Amino acid sequence: MDPGEADAANPNLPIEARPRFQHQILACLLGAIGLYVFLAYVAMPTWWDVYERRHPALRSAPGITSTTVGIPADPVNVAFVGAKANLIRTMLAANWHPADALSLRSSLEITADSVLRRSYVDAPVSSLYLYGRKEDLAFEKPVGNDPRRRNHVRFWQAPELDAAGRPLWLGAATYDRGVGLSRTDGEITHHVAADVDAERAILVGDVMATGRVAEKEIIPNFHVIKQGRNGGGDPWRTDGALWVCVLRPGN
Asked: Strands, E, within 107-195: which ranges?
């Protein structure tokens, strides 16, 4: 901006203050250019390096699961890096039990146990989908002797391996607070608690206590949308972060 333009834009500015005003405008322009250079050439590459360092599959990882008919369901809120056998051993060490396959028999059993308030430590979970397929693994941790309430998580293996040949396991951890009718299809289902971050913290805390985690990383803003409803119509909310745990090899 030349002096004439500055004067025209600020006709009431004292003559002695006009050079200072021009310097301020120049400083703002240089600051904006500097901010762009920092974001484009420093911050963004560093942000992607975090994903690449933890696991390359995180770059394109989906954030929301879906039901069998494609209705958005639970958000992905945890991830583990490590071999399948290592993940299973770690979950067992954390006292999380593999869930039974969903079948007529297991459905009747959990219904009976819910009515009679009997413990069912490996009760089945309904199937959700990520990468176009249902969960590869599912674990749960009962709460007392009431099968209507439980901690549980589903895992899907990402299609890409890291440089060390390790898979990434994306997980959706939620807390079942009771049993009732689905708000979308009227079927009997577990209703989940809205605060999925609390369940994420319980799961990661239990796993960290095993001593089998080599590194833990919190990736902020993994989710742009931070609230919604699952396939049963239950609301959920999150701070948007993804907690990533790298498992120790050989455990």
From this structure: 129-130, 133-134, 137-142, 150-161, 167-181, 188-192
Q: How many CB atoms lie within 10 A of CB 22?
A: 17
> Higher pLDDT residue, 126 or 127?
127
Asked whether the predicted pLDDT for residue 106 surpasses 50, the reply is no
Q: Are 192 and 230 in contact (CB under 8 A)?
A: yes
> What is d(CA 137, CA 210) in angstroms, rounded to the nearest whole number?
19
* pTM listed for this prediction: 0.70
Q: Give the integer Cα–Cα distance in Å for 33 and 243.
A: 34
Domain ranges of the chain: 3-52, 60-247
**What are the structure tokens assigned to 142, written together?**
């009962």
Hunting for tokens 């249902």 — which residue is that?
Answer: 134
Dihedral, 236, 44, 214, 169 alpha carbons, nearest 10: 50
Structure tokens at 84: 């399948």
Structure tokens at 13: 């500015």
Quickly state the pLDDT bin for 122 (edges 50, 70, 90).
very low
**DSSP code, position 1:** -
| Sheet of strand 64-66, all strands in order from the earlier edge strand to the far edge | 72-75, 64-66, 129-130, 133-134
Q: Where are the alpha helices (DSSP H) in the chain?
A: 3-9, 18-38, 44-54, 84-93, 104-116, 196-208
Closest CA to 83 of 167, 163, 204: 167
With beta carbons less than 8 A apart as the criterion, state whether 84 and 157 touch.
yes
